[in-house]
Amino acid sequence: MINIVLFGKPGAGKGTQAEFLKEKYNLTHISTGDVFRYNLKNNTELGKLVRGYMDAGDLVPDELTIKMLQEEVEKHPDTKGFLFDGFPRTLDQASALDRFLATKNWEVTATVALEADNEILIQRLLERGKTSGRIDDQDEEKIRNRYQEYNEKTAPLMEYYNKQNKFHPVNGIGSIAEITERLSQVIEKL
């Protein structure tokens, strides 16, 4: 079983690369954003709890995010592995993921980070924002704020996984095929 955590700033190409990786390695892709949207849209018990926090303008507590992720993992008992996208985002979430996977005799195999220069990514997002309709991709100040938040939250995670020899930075600039090849080289050495 291969369990990969995929990191990258907004615009780094996580979604694009996740599609290739899940197909190539037959992994179950779990995007935290997709899991949140599913629970909210289907008004599940967890979705109702999430909506309460969101409606109050509060951050969704780690425990609730972790519970949703665990339920999603449980839906795929016969998987060959998971590709976690957007999770974990905090040290508490990383620790909770490790504990949860250990209950199944699994572990995070590797953390792969798509790395790219902020200025290149900002231009990418502004271009994407012209056609995607995503408001968060149309304001450079908001994009920079997202990067600041990413740096603050993921720096400790990178150190956490580096101490376990599970952190692998990958150059996220180039063609989609070039980046996919770089990621594949890392994964095939696991």
Assign the CATH class.
Answer: Alpha Beta
- Element order, helices and strands? EHEHHHEHEHHEH
User: Helices and strands: which structural class?
Assistant: alpha/beta
Strand content: 5-15%
Distance between the termini: 11 Å
Overall 3D shape: globular
Second CATH tier, the architecture: 3-Layer(aba) Sandwich
CATH superfamily: P-loop containing nucleotide triphosphate hydrolases
Helix proportion range: 55-70%
- Average pLDDT, rounded to a whole number, is 91
- Biggest beta sheet summary: 5 strands, parallel
Question: At the third CATH level, what is the topology name?
Answer: Rossmann fold
When the domains are counted, the total is 1
Largest beta sheet: strand ordering: 2-3-1-4-5
> Count of helical segments?
8
Number of strands: 5
How is this structure best described in words?
This protein is of the alpha/beta class. The chain has one domain (2-187): Rossmann fold (3-Layer(aba) Sandwich), CATH 3.40.50. The protein contains 8 helices and 5 strands; from the N terminus they run βαβαααβαβααβα. The chain has a 5-stranded parallel β-sheet with strand order 2-3-1-4-5, sandwiched between helices.
